[in-house]
Amino acid sequence: MIFKDCRRLLQVCGGDIIRKALKQKTQSSCSPWRCCHRLISGKPLDPEMRAFLEENTEVVNSGNLTPEIRLRLLTPHCRFWHDKTTLWPYGDPYWAIYWPGGQGLARYLLDNPKVVHRKSILDLGSGCGATAIAAMMSGASQVVANDIDPVAGAAMMLNCELNNVNPFPVITENLIGTKLEGWDLIVLGDMFYSEDLADSLHQWLKKHTIISGTKVLIGDPGRPHFVTHQIQRELHKVSEYCLPEATRQENYGSATTAVWHYQP
Ligand SMILES: C[S@@+](CC[C@H](N)C(=O)[O-])C[C@H]1O[C@@H](n2cnc3c(N)ncnc32)[C@H](O)[C@@H]1O
C-alpha cells in the first residue's frame, strides 16, 4: 500500500528522498519571484496529469482539522491504496497525505487570519497545499508554495480549484540554503522528519530569520527529529490541537499537533 510505503520511508529510511533533494545543487541567492523556470503557475494543468490525479485520488474534507478545506488525497477508496504500488508512475506521493503538522498550521491560520492578512506567505514543503490554501482564505496578499515534487504542484492546482481560491505559484526548486527576500511569514508543516533535514532547515532558518526578520511558524506533531533537536530551545508554542481519530490512526497514534513560533 503506497500510503504505508510513504510513512515507512519516513520512519525507517529517515527520508532518503529528502536527502537526495538536499544534494541537489542550489542557487546561492534566490528570490522566489526570479525562479520562474521551475515555477508552476498561470498555465493550465497538463490534461493527462489532471486526469491521473482525478482518477487516483478522492476529494476529502473530514478526518482532519480543517473541514472547510477540500483536498484530493489518497484514501482507502483509491486503487493505489492497497496494491498496484509498482505501477505508480511518480515518486512517493507525500503530497497525497494531509500531515498533522500542516493540519495544525492550516487550522491556526484559519482561526487567526490576522497572522496572514495582507501579508506575503511562503509555504515550504507544501505537499497538498492546505496551509497555503488556508493562508489564501485568510486574506494573505501573496502566497507561494514550495515543494520539490512537481506532482505536488499539480495536486495543489486541483486543490485550489476545489476551494475556489486563485491558484498560487508553486516553486519546485529546493530553496533550503538559498537567500530569500521579501516574505512576511514562512510556514513549514511536518518538515522535521529526518536528522539531516532538521539540521539544514535549522541552520537556514536561523540565518534567514536573523538577517531578514521574517516570521517563521512550524507545525509538528512531535516527531522524534523535532522534539530532540536543538531548535527546541528557540521555539515558542502558539497553539496545540487534538488530532481527529482518523489522523491519529494514520500517524501511529499521535494525539496532538502544535504550532510553534521560531524565535532564534
Ligand atoms: C511530510 S510532507 C508535509 C506536507 C505538508 N506540509 C503537510 O503538512 O501536509 C513533506 C513535503 O515536503 C516536500 N519536501 C521535501 N523536501 C523538500 C525541500 N527540500 N524543499 C521543499 N519541499 C520539500 C515533500 O515533497 C513533501 O511534499
UniProtKB/TrEMBL annotation:
One example GO MF annotation: methyltransferase activity
Reactions accelerated catalytically: L-lysyl-[protein] + 3 S-adenosyl-L-methionine = N(6),N(6),N(6)-trimethyl-L-lysyl-[protein] + 3 S-adenosyl-L-homocysteine + 3 H(+)
Protein's name according to its UniProt entry: Electron transfer flavoprotein beta subunit lysine methyltransferase
Keyword Methyltransferase among record annotations: yes
Keyword Methyltransferase: yes
Gene Ontology terms describing biological process: methylation
InterPro entries documented for this protein: Ribosomal_L11_MeTrfase_PrmA, SAM-dependent_MTases_sf
Protein family (similarity comment): Belongs to the methyltransferase superfamily. ETFBKMT family.
Keyword vocabulary terms for this entry: Methyltransferase, Transferase
